[in-house]
Amino acid sequence: MFEDQVRERIKAVLDGDKKPEEIPGATSVRCAMGLVLGTLEGITTLSERDAWDYLDSGNVALVHDLRREYSDRISRWRKA
Q: Which of 6, 20, 39, 64 has the smallest C-beta neighbourhood within 10 Å, fewest atoms?
């Protein structure tokens, strides 16, 4: 399931198990992961706009939900 794949990768990054650029996956999963984390650098060569366009509407909604859900952890991760 798409959501499970994205969550698994986000948690691996936020837990410090992997760097974002080390995580494999389909382009859509990588786009979603990067958009949730707030950085596409090293994750995909797509621009932010193209990454949003790459996702279908249900996955765009998921990215917004995950951004809210993980916002505190993402803020701490970005400061580290």
A: 64
